Amino acid sequence: MLEFDSLQTEDTFRLGVETGEQAKPGEVYCLVGDLGVGKTVFTQGFAKGLGIEEPVSSPTFTILQTYDGGRIPFYHFDVYRIGDIEEMDEIGYEDCFYGEGVSFVEWANLIQELLPSHYKVITITKDLERGFDYRKITIETR
């Protein structure tokens, strides 16, 4: 497990860039954190690390947003609003998880049974005692 201290938004973005630069086809990342901890900032940095220049936002209502403009395809899932696990089949999650791109899944605990045998978990947490902008970011492989 790797741990990082982010003291400002720019640190979170920069760690996302570095992680995206190292990403490989077929990897699945589960992004964990409460609302407002910086998941979108990290994701935007990750996309930048993949070479994606277009704006990146959370696909809260569309479930999946695909970005093809980088060195490998980037599949960004937000499964918070998924009503039934079968919806994942309908949007073709297997093509994303087991294809030539890299997948990011927010709220992955809701589709735990669909995750591949190996994936990475990025957890972002706040600690207000260390400052309003402080975030602890951990990356672990499961």
Topology of this protein?
Elements: E1 2-6, H1 9-22, E2 28-32, H2 39-49, E3 64-67, E4 74-78, H3 86-90, H4 93-97, E5 102-106, E6 120-126, E7 135-141
Parallel strand pairs: 2-5, 2-6, 4-5
Antiparallel strand pairs: 1-7, 3-4, 6-7
Descriptive tags:
142 residues; Rossmann fold; 7 strands
Describe what you observe in this structure.
- The protein has 142 residues and is α/β, with parallel strands linked by helices.
- It has a single domain (2-141), classed as Rossmann fold, CATH 3.40.50.300.
- It has helices at 9-22, 39-49, 86-90, 93-97, and strands at residues 2-6, 28-32, 64-67, 74-78, 102-106, 120-126, 135-141.
- A 7-stranded mixed sheet has the order 1-7-6-2-5-4-3, with helices on one face.
- Strand 6 (120-126) and strand 7 form a beta hairpin.
- The longest helix has 14 residues, at 9-22.
